[in-house]
Each structure stands twice: as structure tokens, then as C-alpha cells.
Design goal:
alpha/beta; six-stranded parallel beta sheet; three-stranded parallel beta sheet; 9 helices; globular; binds zinc ion; about 230 residues
């Protein structure tokens, strides 16, 4: 019994020293990162896209701001030059699986394969292995928790959803962001959408307005470092 309680005590101590974000069995999940410096992160999912991503990169460069792109491994293989440009211009690339499957339909082994293949594609093209993972549709199940803990990925969800992928009108996207934004937010947008979308038009309005309000755009890894 002495041994058992000693074991329990060491388990409790182990969890007590972990950071606050590590509630889920050692898995680090962030939907925002509180800070008092008005730092926020723009994130773009599902690319790279041969046309949209370069336009978005041009807009980000125009304002000298950094963002995070959660890329799909198969798209990285189709458009390696676009991924390379993302990294060369100081943005961050996160892992968003290889084929963008429904996570709920995957076993742990299936998810690991998806993550591994995407990681390999990103590393091959950019020379950098991603440290952030965003599950498709933001689904966090046990497989995602186990995989991300084993592979030391931070799991990144979002706190502001623009719903740009659903064809949401520009004014609604802008209103949604401007009404809800606060320091530490992670904003979800998409650079690869198959139907028509207003991401780029909205971005052109949102960025200067948020800069006017004193916000600074940083990559998600930087946002995590600056967490209070
Ligand atoms: Zn996605």
C-alpha cells in the first residue's frame, strides 16, 4: 500500500508541474493563447493553393505580418513552390494530415500514417518539420490526443471561426471577426476552398482594421511562447 500511495503521489506531482494547457493526458490543445499584448494569429487551412495562397501571401507581405498555414500533405506535393514561399517569407506551416480525412473514421494507426506522410511532405519541401497539428474539422478524439502527445505536436483549434469555406459574405466575415476578436485569439480561415469564397476580400478589410485597433499578427508558435 505504501508503494501504491507513493506511486499515486508521484503521478499527482507529475501532473502538478505540467503547464495549464496540458489537461488532456499530457496533450497540449490550444484554441487561443491569452496575452496582454494584443497578439493574435491568422490561420489558413487546407492549402497550399496555386492561386489563392500567393495572393494571401502578397497581402500579408504588404502589411509585413506573419500567419500560420495548416497544409494538407498531398497539396504540398502538388504545389511545393507555394509551400516553400510560405516558409521563406517567415510564416509557419502546421500539419493538417495528408488527405484531409474525417478523423472520426480513422484508427490511431490510420491517423499516424496521415500525420507522418504530411510531415514528410512538408519537411521535404521546406526543410522544416512542423510542430503544430490541426485535425481536420477540429475533431479531437483519443487518437488525436495519443498521436499528438507521442509526437510532441501542439494541437491547434481556433477561437474565431470566419466560416469562409461556406461561402459566407465578406461583410459577415468582417463583422464576425471585428465583433468577437480579443487578445490571444486564433482566427480560422482557408486558403483552399473548392466553392467560391470571400476570404481574400475579407482579409483586405480585416487586416488594416485590426492593425488600427492595435493588434499584432504573429505565428501560432509565437502566440504560444507569449502565453500568460
Ligand atoms: Zn481543413
Amino acid at each position: 500500500r505504501g508503494l501504491i500511495s507513493l506511486f499515486m503521489l508521484s503521478v499527482m506531482l507529475f501532473y502538478a508541474v505540467l503547464p495549464v494547457s496540458a489537461e488532456i493526458s499530457g496533450c497540449r490543445v490550444y484554441s487561443s493563447c491569452k496575452n496582454d499584448k494584443k497578439l493574435i494569429a491568422l490561420t489558413f487551412d487546407d492549402g497550399p493553393h496555386p492561386k489563392n495562397t500567393p495572393v494571401i501571401l502578397d497581402i500579408l507581405a504588404q502589411y509585413g505580418i506573419k500567419a500560420t498555414f495548416f497544409e494538407v500533405g498531398s497539396n504540398v506535393e502538388y504545389y511545393p513552390d507555394v509551400s516553400r514561399r510560405v516558409i521563406e517569407e517567415g510564416h509557419e506551416i502546421g500539419n493538417h494530415t495528408y488527405t484531409h480525412p474525417h478523423v472520426k473514421n480513422l484508427s490511431l494507426a490510420g491517423l499516424e500514417k496521415e500525420v507522418e506522410k504530411c510531415e514528410a511532405a512538408i519537411k521535404k519541401v521546406t526543410g522544416k518539420a512542423p510542430v503544430l497539428f490541426r485535425p481536420p474539422e477540429g475533431v479531437i478524439d483519443d487518437a488525436v490526443k495519443v498521436m499528438s502527445t507521442d509526437r510532441e505536436y501542439s494541437v491547434i483549434i481556433w477561437s474565431v471561426d470566419t466560416r469562409d469555406w461556406a461561402g459566407t459574405p465578406t461583410s459577415t466575415i468582417v463583422g464576425n471577426v471585428m465583433k468577437n476578436v480579443k487578445s490571444g485569439d486564433i482566427i480560422l480561415m482557408h486558403d483552399y476552398v473548392t466553392k467560391s469564397c470571400h476570404t481574400i476580400e475579407a482579409l483586405k478589410i480585416i487586416i488594416p482594421r485590426l492593425l488600427d485597433e492595435g493588434y499584432t499578427f504573429v505565428t501560432v508558435s509565437r502566440l504560444i511562447e507569449e502565453k500568460k
